[in-house]
Amino acid sequence: RQPINADNRKIIVFSAFSDTAQYLYANLADWAKRSLGIDAALVTGSAGIQSTLPGLRKNMSSVLSAFAPRAKERPVDMADEGEIDLLIATDCISEGQNLQDCDYLINYDIHWNPVRIIQRFGSVNRIGLPNSSIQLVNYWPDISLDEYINLKERVESRMMIADVTATGDDN
Fold it and tell me: Is residue 38's pLDDT more than 70?
């Protein structure tokens, strides 16, 4: 309702698992359309592509162009298909995609490999970013589950090792 950058309600929700992405889409897409007036899409490698835009072609290129028309240099003849403001996806779109139209990125579940997290952020935080700032949010497991799997500490340790190895500094 109140985007970080004026008139930019573009949100990406990343999940490491296609089942989780499908669940989020099933529970958020209709609500977002009804309550917020925004269209949503789902992009996963195994579960395929879905969208609340009836005229949008169901392929990755069309969906990503509808989400990030400026970054993807969307052709004028595709503009009548509409725009996606809520994109729910797995890491199949995290590498090599220009999605810097995005205002808000959510890591719904954290991948154990910090490179995946960096790639997710990198798809949004790129040279030529039109936004004055972007919000990046990580959802960690609840305390009791994290005590069991120790995910937060493992990922943070791997990120520190990557920083020290790459730059010689602790970031």
Answer: yes
**Reduced to 3 states, what is the DSSP secondary structure of residue 28?**
helix
Task: Count other C-beta atoms under 10 Å from residue 168's C-beta.
Answer: 7
Per-residue pLDDT, 102:
82
Give first-to-last CA distance, the chain, whole Å.
Answer: 33
Type of residue at 18: S
- Here the tokens at position 48 are 């395929």
Please write the tens of the pLDDT for every residue from 64-102.
Answer: 999 988 888 888 877 788 899 999 999 888 777 888 888
What is the pTM assigned to this prediction?
Answer: 0.77
Burial of 138 (0-12, 13-18, 19+ CB in 10 A): middle
Rg (CA), the chain: 17
Asked if 109 and 16 touch (Cβ cutoff 8 Å), the reply is yes
For residue 86, give the 3-state DSSP assignment.
strand
Alpha-helix runs per DSSP H in the chain: 18-31, 60-67, 114-122, 143-149, 151-167
Nearest C-alpha neighbor of 99 from the set 116, 86, 81: 86
